[in-house]
Amino acid sequence: MVSQYDVRYEYKKGAEWVHESTRLPATSSALAVRRVADELQRRFGDLSNLNIYAEEFISAPAEEELV
Q1: In the predicted model, is pLDDT for residue 42 greater than 70?
Q2: pTM of the predicted model, to two decimals?
Q3: Which domains does the chain have, with CATH numbers?
Q4: What angle do CA 33, 37, 38 make, to 5 degrees?
């Protein structure tokens, strides 16, 4: 089953850490992390200064309208 995963990552750009995140569909958190890591490797090449993790996005149920 495909779920939505929030993937947060940080990488070193010069002397500073850059923090970013994205949400994407995947069948597991490991696959979501792999997809983002692959894209970052294409962009930057070196992933030695990368921290990355994912968690399943669970949307809150719609609030019932009060009458």
Answers
A1: yes
A2: 0.71
A3: 3-56 (3.10.20.10)
A4: 120
